[in-house]
């Protein structure tokens, strides 16, 4: 026991001689004497080697030394803390960091505008699955197996027998609405669609569409044209020029594509409009009688029209964007430009 007490006295003299004036010196002292593997901890471990009749006396010596070592540490810590510069203190009078307001994605902004316009015309919003079977995506739309028009849409198939796929258009929602048999039908179908295309400034493997469907008695192509005239003028302004061109879609007859004068170049010709001054924004037509019959609707009593447009293309025209890839790259510098939009 005497040798250990002598060692404790030596440690006490060492502590008294130490000058702890920097944080590094203080931390070194704490680890050496007060740490979990420090000297004080080790000395308490010697208690098991002390005879029983001397344990009380030795315990008092250890406690005195521990309190002495801790007092040295606390005293030095207060001195070290008081020497730290006050510049690190928080100045509560300074303004806080600004909270940057979030924004909606430009695709969602335009999608909402399109829905709002058709709401005013009495169109409800319908939704459907993005993973679809062959019947609702192709066959019910007058696209039977091996129909050459299926090649117009490069499809992502995920299963066979029966075929399951990522929908290539939101027309599958139109089919599901017609199968309900609740007439008349006046709906728009916004949503994401998928096609196996090479990603470029003008194409992507996924994009967004809004399709519309109106079925009732005595619906004519004139009703279709007036609906789309109203939509274009509400979205792009009264001065935009419009033209219809004959086209082909297997699910409509007759079919047409609708062009507007290019908003990027004002009709003078640019890369977006391929130097023509016109930009195609949607396809449309009268619902094919075979489509009506496939969905259980009497084509002798009811007629209807349908149309579909890509939201990305509309957004590019409205905001003067020339690269489709910007919509999916999540570049904050690009997205912050739409903060003020509502």
Query: Any idea of the CATH class of the largest domain?
Result: Alpha Beta
The biggest sheet amounts to: 7 strands, mixed
Strand order of the largest sheet: 1-5-6-10-9-8-7
What is the CATH H-level superfamily of the largest domain? Bira Bifunctional Protein, Domain 2
Q: Could you tell me the strand content as a percent range?
A: 15-25%
Number of strands: 10
Low-confidence stretches: none
Helix/strand-derived category reads alpha+beta
Q: How many structural domains does the protein architecture include?
A: 2
What's the N-to-C terminus distance? Answer: 83 Å
Number of helices: 11
Q: What does it look like?
A:
26% of the residues are buried. With 342 residues, this protein is of the alpha+beta class. The mean pLDDT is 88. It has 11 helices and 10 strands. The protein has 2 domains: 2-85; 106-338, Bira Bifunctional Protein, Domain 2 (BirA Bifunctional Protein, domain 2, 2-Layer Sandwich).
